[in-house]
Amino acid sequence: MEVTDMSIALSQSRRLAALLAVCAAAFTASCSRETVRRPEADVGMSLSAPVNEDQSYGFLPPVENPVTAGENIYTQSSEETACRQRLKRLGVVFSELPPINDGGSCRIDNPILVSGFAGGAIDFKPAAKLNCAVTEAFARWVKGDLVPSTRFRYFSGVDTIYNAGGYSCRTMNHRRGAKMSEHSRGNAIDVTRIKLNNGKAVKVHKPGWFSFRERGLLNSVRADACDYFTTVLGPGYNREHSDHFHFDLMQRRNGYRACR
């Protein structure tokens, strides 16, 4: 009986050894060269790299403002935005300004600084603070009437338009107690002189009897301006306007225009 039990135990041990050998062979075959994970290559990111004690540290340089020059970063209505697009198509040279509020009627919610017309071919001096609406009307007058008139009478284009300012917190004609001027809303432009490309300077005044071309030019552009502005005043109207044209977009009842 003891011999038989020993024989059975020996037989089981041999079978177990054979089974282990088969498993070991299978495991070895599965661990081929392609499946063994290799260590990653060293790319210089070792945490044991030496530290340079002399190395200095600082803040990153500031990020430049992504807003392009001339772009309005202030709140504006869709009409103000559309108006500026029209100015660009007309070739008006302008830049944005922060809102102006000097109290009372002296304010422009979305002012611009105008310095030129016709894509910069015509200078506007000095640069004036205006609202967009009156700037657009003026640009259309320059393009549609002033430049064609100077070419017709003087065979020359316009080099510079000189003005007496745009925005100004004051009453009409600087008179105490009078209504606030359209200048107080940046809604008016005063033109004092027009310099042509040929060097001729045409002053806005009442020309002499024999100044035919000058009188013709001033009378023509003054009359044509009534198609663009609601108020056109100039030499001969009163003493305050004896040396300049005054253009504005004052709103009146029934669409009335004052061209004098």
Automatic annotation (TrEMBL):
Domain (Extensin-like C-terminal): residue spans on this chain: 82-260
Pfam family, one: Extensin-like_C
Record's protein name: Extensin
Domain of life of the source: Bacteria
